[in-house]
Amino acid sequence: MFSDLLINKLKKATTVAALTGAGISAESGVPTFRGEQGLWKKFRPEELANFNAFMKNPKLVWEWYNFRKNLISQVQPNPGHHALVQMETYFQDFYLITQNVDNLHRLAGNKRIYELHGNIMRNRCVDCNKQWSDTLIDEENLPHCDCGGLIRPDVVWFGESLPEKEITKSFEVARKSEVFFSIGTSALVQPAASLPIEAKRAGAYVVEINFEPTVITDYVDESIIGKSGEILPSLIRQIINDQE
Ligand code: BV8
Ligand code: ZN
């Protein structure tokens, strides 16, 4: 399943990075964004994951986020998440960059995570950014901050800029990684989708692991089609076994 070139590169690599998207959580039972389950009450994510939609109908957007938080609170990380924890231990310098807001990489045990799009378990004030993460959100009586601002999920919506430190560090990592994985993402959302491109431009060996081809498949060095929950454990097993 894996080329000798990839295995040899991984056995010698010190700096390895992985960008993940919703696909890595699919086998945990979390619907992906653009898959058939991506719809919620006939809405597309792009219609709800934006500031105007929230200010126009905060109750509806909070219903969607509470639905997702409730679903996520009932699922577990899958073998794909656990394989990335093993990678963090195995490689001298491993960086995990995620577009996901589902907290599953943290739950699985990765420590060095760049969350490009925030985290669904965190909330903040629309006006003053004060954190209100442990506030239970009752959609019927939406809570407000001390300053009077509405409380919102602490995630990055379409049209909003990504957290400066996370995206800057992620491009630095992409430029210095020897092997860069793009895992479970349709590579459509910017600026995250530019990371594998930047990695390749800077000389990394770029490997895509995805259930189906994407817009970057023709561009990467190696494309492995299949389930990340099967591919990643088999990859890390092969690297570790070969070393023994
Ligand atoms: C910004 C958080 C500007 C919220 C999310 C036109 C052209 C280019 C760009 C734009 C444009 N128009 C607008 C833009 C910018 C826009 C953008 O990129 N739009 C796209 C859709 C065209 N980007 C933005 O708005 C970003 N901000 O640009 O700001 C700016 C700049 C300066 C100052 C001010 C403003 C903000 C983007 C962040 C949006 N927030 N999420 C929430 O989650 O509620 S994005 C959302 O999409 C999720 O984070 C998700 O992770 C992300 C990407 O989706 P994927 O993860 O890839 O999921 P998807 O379902 O698409 O694919 C899953 C894949 O997994 C599939 O390929 C499937 O085959 C595969 N799979 C399934 N099962 C498995 C599997 N693979 C392996 N194993 C399996 N078992
Ligand atoms: Zn406030």
Description of the molecule:
With 244 residues, the protein is α/β, with parallel strands linked by helices. The chain folds into two domains: 4-29 and 77-117 and 162-243, TPP-binding domain (Rossmann fold), CATH 3.40.50; 38-74 and 132-155, SIR2/SIRT2 'Small Domain' (2-Layer Sandwich), CATH 3.30.1600.10. Helix content is 38%, strand content 18%. The protein contains ten helices and eight strands. It has helices spanning 4-12, 23-26, 45-48, 51-56, 58-72, 79-90, 104-108, 164-176, 194-201, 228-243, and strands spanning 15-20, 93-98, 113-115, 118-125, 151-155, 179-183, 205-210, 222-225. The strands form two sheets. A six-stranded parallel β-sheet has the order 3-2-1-6-7-8, sandwiched between helices. Strands 4-5 form a two-stranded antiparallel sheet. Helix 7 (104-108) links the parallel strand 2 and strand 3 (113-115). It starts with a helix and ends with a helix. The model has no long low-confidence stretch (mean pLDDT 95). It binds ligand BV8 and zinc ion. Zinc ion (ZN) binds next to loops. Zinc ion (ZN) binds at residues 125, 127-128, 130, 145, 147, 149.
